[in-house]
Specification:
Blueprint: E1 2-7, H1 20-30, E2 34-43, H2 52-60, E3 63-71, E4 75-83, E5 87-94, E6 104-112, E7 115-123, H3 128-142, E8 149-154, H4 162-168, E9 174-177, E10 191-195, E11 199-203, E12 218-224
Helix pairs in contact: 1-2, 3-4
Length: 225
């Protein structure tokens, strides 16, 4: 299966232009089976001719679960998990920390052809103490890891392995990522795909445009061990 995580920055590219179509074109070039996106920003004022998720359906699947950390009549902002296969179960995990920007995770079971697989998609906070608290709570949710599990998203951990990677290493020995931020001159490995021992994966590098977001995506081909 092909797995992809991408912080799409509200579809605002490195040129400051918002273009959902440009994001959809990158997804079309990858054709992921499982896609996690962060910073999805749907606003009434955008007036997009085609709804954002409709643009992705043909390239990433029609099954999805989204969690909005900001939601009102004019705006929806948060994260989403999109799958080519049915999402059997899905729930939100609250990772809010004090008065900081609300954060969350999606904990889902996806009916992959090789059998049900657990997928947790998240976007952690910017502060070190904030991330430490969020990872502690998330770790309590995901462990013990008893089935094939993928944990992916924007972890905002500026080092590799960093605090997040060190905490996850015993349960998620495979970490796939690279320098993803800032897209124009990537230095920091903020975005990653972690795999449980039941899975193995290969990082996939494709000649993709770099102007769709301020982050680059992380892509991996994953299979059972």
């Amino acid at each position: 299966m092909r797995v992809m995580t991408w912080n799409i920055h509200g579809c605002v590219g490195t040129d400051g232009v918002r273009s959902p179509q440009r994001v959809a074109d990158v997804v079309a070039a990858v054709t992921p089976d499982i896609l996690a996106v962060q910073e999805v920003d749907l606003r009434e004022s955008h007036g997009d001719p085609v709804p954002f998720f409709d643009l992705l359906e043909a390239h990433a699947g029609v099954h999805r679960h989204e969690v909005w950390t900001i939601s009102d009549a004019r705006r929806q902002y948060g994260i989403a998990l999109i799958s080519r296969w049915e999402i059997l179960e899905a729930r939100a995990v609250d990772l809010a920390y004090r008065s900081r920007e609300p954060r969350t995770a999606i904990d889902a079971i996806i009916a992959a052809p090789s059998g049900p697989i657990r997928v947790i998609a998240t976007h952690l906070g910017l502060g070190r103490g904030e991330r430490r608290d969020q990872m502690r709570r998330l770790f309590e949710v995901v462990t013990p890891v008893t089935r094939p599990t993928i944990l992916l998203g924007d972890f905002n951990d500026w080092l590799q392995p960093g605090a997040v990677g060190r905490l996850l290493a015993p349960s998620f020995p495979t970490a796939i990522g690279g320098r993803t931020f800032h897209a124009r001159l990537p230095v920091f490995p903020l975005d990653r795909i972690y795999l449980s021992p039941h899975l193995k994966g290969t990082s996939l590098s494709l000649p993709l445009p770099r102007d769709g977001s301020d982050h680059l995506p992380v892509i991996a081909d994953v299979q059972p061990t």
